[in-house]
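Posting for a labmate who doesn't have an account.
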Amino acid sequence: RMSDEPKQVGKPDDTRINAQQDHELDYWSLELGVSRGVLREAVEKAGPMVADVRRYLRRIGGDE
């Protein structure tokens, strides 16, 4: 896991999504199979925890 340090661009924290960082948006939008815009909306509605975002996306029909 990596910290939310913007200068480090490896794999993001595997439990949280920081929608303010481009590399995390890129990683998680690919991982979850949604656009960056949908991902931002999901984080806004469900919070930053990956499990909560996955549940939200399943509910709206946008996860994988």
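Reply:
Got it, the structure tokens are right above this. The chain has a mean pLDDT of 85.
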